[in-house]
Amino acid sequence: MNALIHPKTGYARPDATLRPMRSIEYEALARVTRKLSAAWPRRKDDFPALIAALNDNLTLWSTLAADVALPENGLPAPLRAQLFYLYEFTDHHSRTVRDGKATVDVLIDVNTAVMRGLRGQGGEL
C-alpha cells in the first residue's frame, strides 16, 4: 500500500513526505472511518453525507487495490490478495448500504482492523 501520496496531498501537507508511509495510510483510513461513523447516525436527515462517506471509503480502497495489484508492490503476495479482496468486499457492501439493506458497521470494522495492522497491533487480516 504505497499509492496514497498524491501530488495535491504532497503540496497540501508539507510534512507528508517526511512521515512513514504506514502513518499516511493509517491517517487516510482513520479519516474515512470517522466520516462513516459520523454519517451513519445522520443518514435519515443527511443521506448525501452517507453517500459521500461511502464514496470516500471506496475511493481509498480502490487506490489501495490498484497499489497492491502492481507487480512491483513489495508486500507478500498473500497479504496483497487479502487487501484486494477487502476492496472487493468494500465495493459490494457499500452498494448494499446504499440500498438500505446493511449498515456501515462492517466497513468500519474492516478499516479498524487494517489500521491495527498498520500500527502493528493486529494479527492476520
Number of helices: 5
Name the poorly predicted regions.
4-12
Measured on Cα atoms, how large is the radius of gyration? Answer: 15 Å
Distance between the termini: 14 Å
Outline the biggest β-sheet.
none
Q: Proportion of β residues?
A: under 5%
Which term fits the overall shape?
globular
| Range of helix content | 55-70%
Total DSSP E strands: 0
Overall SS class: mainly alpha
Overall average residue pLDDT: 87
Structure, briefly:
The protein is an all-alpha fold and about 120 residues long.
List the helices and strands and how they pair.
Layout: H1 7-12, H2 21-39, H3 47-69, H4 77-98, H5 105-118
Helix pairs in contact: 2-3, 2-5, 3-4
Report on this model:
Helix content is 67%, strand content 0%. Residues 4-12 have low confidence and may be disordered. The chain has one domain (21-118). With 125 residues, the chain is an all-alpha fold. The protein has helices at 7-12, 21-39, 47-69, 77-98, 105-118. The chain is globular and about 45 Å long. The protein has five helices and no strands. The chain starts with 6 loop residues before the first helix and ends in a 7-residue tail after the last helix.
